[in-house]
Amino acid sequence: MTEQEEKKRALKILSRLKKNYPDVKPALNFKTPFQLLVATILSAQCTDDRVNIVTKDLFKKYKTPADYLRVPDEELEKDIYSTGFYRQKAKSIKQCCKALVEKYNGKVPDDFDKLTKLPGVGRKTASVVAGNAFGIPAIAVDTHVRRLSNLLGFIDSKNPDKIEERLKELFPKKDWINLSHWLATHGRRICIARRPKCNECFLADLCPSYNPIEK
Fold this sequence. Notes:
The chain is mostly helical. The chain is 58% helix and 0% strand. It is elongated, with a radius of gyration of 19 Å.
């Protein structure tokens, strides 16, 4: 398939995702850029549903970066325990908050490069915050996006940076932010990792991984 044909197929897939999931939004609950930053750090190797349960109380207790810095490590670890890897996450949150206080007066910077330089923040987290908190075009490559990008034949790679680069080549910039949500939603509802519903999939004729289950 030529590059032009590949882009045409990608746009067909995008069109169907838009049609079937017209009201996509971030899976993490947040009201401020700072809340989204903390929630995204907590979401590493944890379900968004679990993070939302934890942050419901967490965001009432801690409102600013300074609040997280005042609390003992053990207390913060207990507050986020159920998200897993709680010691490392508590450390990342505190280091990130320290940088926010020292460099940005406690505010989350609305700049992608500055976000990636915050301790505990990689490209995925920076992309989530940049796109969903500030409207900066970015593609967050989470587990769903990585998996579906390969299954749909956009790329053959597990490298998040290469996947991000390829998706940006295939899709219009105006759709970058929501692309992550469309792919993740499809991954949760239809293209489920352990039991994909290929027979129900509206992308079946465009998907090289289509594998119908005989009834």
